[in-house]
Write a structure and sequence with these properties.
Layout: H1 7-31, H2 34-45, E1 51-58, E2 62-70, E3 73-75, E4 77-82, E5 91-100, E6 103-112, E7 117-127, H3 132-137, E8 142-155, E9 160-174, E10 180-191, E11 197-203, E12 208-216, E13 221-230, H4 236-243, E14 254-261, H5 272-277
Antiparallel strand pairs: 1-2, 2-3, 2-4, 4-5, 5-6, 6-7, 7-8, 8-9, 9-10, 10-11, 11-12, 12-13, 13-14
Length: 279
């Protein structure tokens, strides 16, 4: 007469069976075609998301779309590679890269289960002539290249709660209301503890003399104070352009103070039909 299996043996068999099922489910998720996953996400889970993908290839974990549109901004290609271990700390995290003409960028982007968005190792060069999204926020006919080198960036529903790095505007030009060259501008960003984020503006010794300070609170309120002047007072186009910003002081410098809330900018990042419906 055969002896029945011991409880320990039965437990091990049960654990092996569960592990096999879990591994099989992981295999299914990892190998699901990206086009199928995007279709489900777009139609069922997040129909109002401002992301639209063209021809999609690869899998849910590692794929590519060409083209892609985010908030009205077109990209020739968008690729991603999800990092599964990030799920252990409550985030969905991926290495993301994009290209659009001679513009490109890459970053590690994550979204927490609380809705916060995190990014790190952000490197990008963006041709501002093609930056439709920025043109909506600042309709100045901007030219030149925007360079991003950020170690960290954290955004929640209210504000930017973490940022560290540098933004630069090389060969800065605006064409509205008149074509004006500024030279190179640089913004250094850092987090100031519980007070929020601070960004310091400086020029690179070009036609525009610029210095400024932007403070963003945890509640999403911002205040910018700045001073601008033409380094050469004989540059009439630049002098006239600065006069449109405010009254010049005796030293020829224009001082600017501006307050507001980041929530006022949220509509620019929605799909056009969604933004129109909320007006």
């Amino acid at each position: 007469m055969r002896a029945s299996s011991s409880p320990v043996v039965r437990m091990r068999k049960w654990q092996v069976a569960v592990l096999a099922v879990v591994l099989y489910l992981i295999f299914l998720v990892v190998t699901i075609p990206a086009s199928l996953a995007y279709g489900v996400l777009k139609k069922k889970l997040a129909p109002e998301t401002p992301l639209q993908l063209g021809s999609v290839s690869g899998t849910l974990w590692s794929g590519r779309a060409a083209p892609a549109v985010l908030g009205g901004q077109r990209m020739d290609s968008l690729s991603w590679s999800v990092q599964p271990l990030s799920l252990l700390i409550g985030r969905v995290q991926a290495q993301v890269e994009f290209r659009y003409g001679d513009s490109y960028g890459k970053a590690v982007v994550a979204r927490g289960f609380t809705g916060r968005i995190y990014a790190k190792d952000i490197e990008a060069r963006i041709d501002l002539k093609r930056m439709r999204l920025l043109a909506q926020v600042l309709p100045l006919g901007m030219e030149g290249a925007l360079l991003l080198n950020l170690k960290t960036l954290g955004i929640d529903r209210r504000s930017i709660f973490d940022a560290e790095g540098v933004l630069a505007w090389d060969s800065a030009i605006i064409t509205v209301p008149m074509r004006t060259e500024f030279g190179n501008l640089r913004v250094t960003i850092n987090t100031t503890g519980d007070d929020g984020v601070k960004a310091t503006l400086a020029d690179g010794g070009g036609p525009l003399q610029a210095e400024g300070l932007l403070n963003i609170t945890r509640e999403g309120n911002y205040k910018f104070t700045g001073m601008f002047a033409a380094r050469d007072p004989n540059q009439r186009m630049l002098v006239q352009g600065l006069q449109m910003l405010g009254r010049q002081g005796a030293d020829g410098k224009v001082s600017i103070v501006n307050n507001g809330s980041l929530s006022q900018l949220s509509g620019y990042f929605e799909k056009p039909e969604v933004a129109a419906a909320t007006k």
